[in-house]
Amino acid sequence: MPRTLGGQITLEKTPSYFVTREAPRRISSMSRDTKLIVVVRNPVTRAISDYTQTLSKKPDIPTFEELAFKNKSLGQVDTTWNAIRIGIYALHLETWLQYFPLAQMHFVSGERLITDPAGELGRVQDFLGLKRIVTDKHFYFNKTKGFPCLKKPEDSSTPRCLGKSKGRTHVQIDRDVIEQLRDFYRPFNVRFYETVGQDFRWD
Ligand SMILES: Nc1ncnc2c1ncn2[C@@H]1O[C@H](COP(=O)(O)OS(=O)(=O)O)[C@@H](OP(=O)(O)O)[C@H]1O
């Protein structure tokens, strides 16, 4: 972690902190004032995205369906598969709440980050106590990419979209598989909404 001077804040990110059991204790023993930002999206879409990413690197893995269920006809979801486990946000949050108050956490909607990036980043800036510098004027919707992109980053004179590994076309998954996973996640989602006091409308 680089040193932070007065008037500066240090930001650090990894997709795995939120779901790593030891991370809350380790981070709180480093600094109990740390503010935590978590991007969450519909856990079913998240699982499919996760699988799509793995498949792009390892084309020989079993199908999504084979990995997602212990027994599909009995509706038994395999919670040991990381793509499934990570989306049980309510469980991960419980561990964090043993070390950090909810007021030190901010949850970004992955869906709104795409439909309204400036709005989501406005809330992030407020949470960090920063002036709202990043606004609507910094984004445009890139039709080819199908996502918002930055109009002109500080270090460049040209617009910049995220790379090819962000926003891939997802693998097609059967409707009934999606329904079963929705049913599985519903109670965890409700618990998550109640704990954070925010309804992400994933149903
Ligand atoms: N502006 C913009 N451009 C491209 N992609 C965007 C953008 N905003 C959010 N997203 C969503 O970010 C998803 C990838 O982020 P990840 O969290 O998987 O990245 S990582 O875990 O840090 O590698 C990626 O998920 P997939 O669509 O499943 O690939 C995107 O939906």
UniProtKB/TrEMBL annotation:
* An example Gene Ontology molecular-function term: [heparan sulfate]-glucosamine 3-sulfotransferase activity
Q: Which InterPro entries match?
A: NST/OST, P-loop_NTPase, Sulfotransferase_dom
SUPFAM superfamilies for this protein: P-loop containing nucleoside triphosphate hydrolases
Note one Pfam family from the annotation: Sulfotransfer_1
Indicate yes or no for the key word Transferase. yes
Establish whether keyword Hydrolase is in the entry: no
**Cited Gene3D superfamilies:** P-loop containing nucleotide triphosphate hydrolases (3.40.50.300)
Q: Which keywords does this chain's UniProt record carry?
A: Disulfide bond, Glycoprotein, Transferase
> Residue ranges of the Sulfotransferase domain?
28-186
Query: Which positions does UniProt annotate for 3'-phosphoadenylyl sulfate binding?
Result: R41, S49, K166, G167, R168, T169, H170
Q: List the disulfide bonds.
A: C149-C161
State the EC number(s): 2.8.2.-
State the family it belongs to.
Belongs to the sulfotransferase 1 family.
Q: What is this protein called?
A: Sulfotransferase
